[in-house]
Amino acid sequence: MNIDSIQNGIVIDHIKAGSAMVLYDLLGLDALDVSVAIIKNVTSRKMGKKDIIKIDADIPVDLDVIGYVDPAATINVIRDGVLVEKKSLSLPKTLTNVLKCKNPRCITSCEQELDHVFRLADEEKKLYRCVYCETKAN
Amino acid sequence: MRSIIDILDLSVAELDELIAVANDIIAHPRNYQDACARKKLATLFFEPSTRTRLSFEAAMYELGGSVLSVTGGATSSVAKGESIADTAKTVSCYADIIAMRHPKEGAALVAARNASIPVINAGDGGHCHPTQTLADLLTIQREKGGFSGLTIGLCGDLKFGRTVHSLINAMSRYPDNRFILVSPEELKLPSYVKNDTLRKYGLPYVQTTDLQECLPEMDVLYMTRVQRERFFNEEDYLRLKDTYILTPDKLKNAKQELCIMHPLPRVNEISVAIDDDPRACYFKQVLNGKYMRMALILKLLKEAAL
Question: Is-contact B182 B211, C-beta < 8 A?
Answer without folding.
Answer: yes
